Amino acid sequence: MLMAHPAVLRDLVEQYETLAALHAEAGGQEVRQRMADVTYTLCVSTGTRDVDAALSAARERLGTAAVGSLPPA
C-alpha cells in the first residue's frame, strides 16, 4: 500500500485537530464540511475507514518516520 509522505500526514493531523477545536467552539457548516474533507483524506492516506483509526495510523507512521530520520549513533 502507498503511504502518504510524513509531512502530508503531519499537516492533515494538524488540520484535523484545529478543525475539531473549532467545531467544538462554534461548528458551522463550513467547519463541518472542511472537517469531513480532512477526515476523508486522512482515511484514504492511511488506508483506514474511520477517523480514529486514521489518526492512530498517521501518528504511528509519524513516529516511525521520526525514528527513521535520526542520524546513526
Can you characterise this structure?
- With 73 residues, the protein is mostly helical.
- The chain has one domain (6-67).
- Helix content is 78%, strand content 0%.
- The protein has three helices and no strands.
- The chain starts with 5 loop residues before the first helix and ends in a 5-residue tail after the last helix.
Share in β-strands: under 5%
Round the mean pLDDT to the nearest integer and report it: 87
Based on secondary structure, the structural category is mainly alpha
The number of distinct helices, counting runs of at least 4 residues, comes to 3
Shape: elongated
DSSP strand tally: 0
User: Separation of termini?
Assistant: 31 Å
> What number of domains?
1
Q: Unreliable segments (pLDDT under 50, ≥5 consecutive)? A: none
What helical percentage do the residues reach? over 70%
Element layout with pairings:
Elements: H1 6-26, H2 29-46, H3 51-68
Keywords:
73 residues; mainly alpha; 78% helix
In short, what is this structure?
The chain has helices at 6-26, 29-46, 51-68. The mean pLDDT is 87.
